[in-house]
Amino acid sequence: MAALLELSRSGYYKWSAAQAAGPSPTVVRRGGLDAKVAAFHAASDEVYGSPRILADLREDGETVSRKTVAASMRRQHLRGISPRKFTTVTTIADAGRATPPDLVKRTWDTGQLDRVWTSDIT
């Protein structure tokens, strides 16, 4: 059967022994950590990202790194909500201010040299 499926005999026996032994301690810890990460994420109304969940886990007594928490969140497809970046407002239009008259009626190219001159304050 191993030859038909193009598997090595030793690979099959290794897989069979792993199945009989049950989950490894790493897999068990990862499952427990995933459950705690999901619980803390849900408790934060799905707002917290890995740094805040890490702080909650450490407060709860877990010894874990931020990268482990981030990997757990990726496995579970969980994402924190980041605020939008702050953008400064550089121009505030004054509706009551008088605007200068448009003497060229937005016609910049009249076909003749030195007829229309413009400038830019920047």
Automatic annotation (TrEMBL):
HTH-like domain ranges (all copies)? 35-86
The domain of life is Bacteria
What Pfam families would the database entry show? HTH_21
Instruction: List, alphabetically, the InterPro entries matched.
Output: HTH-like_dom (IPR025948), Transposase_IS3/IS150/IS904 (IPR050900)
Kindly provide the name given to this protein in its UniProt entry: IS3 family transposase
Q: Species lineage, top-down? A: Bacteria, Bacillati, Actinomycetota, Actinomycetes, Jatrophihabitantales
PANTHER family, alphabetized: TRANSPOSASE INSF FOR INSERTION SEQUENCE IS3B, TRANSPOSASE INSF FOR INSERTION SEQUENCE IS3B-RELATED
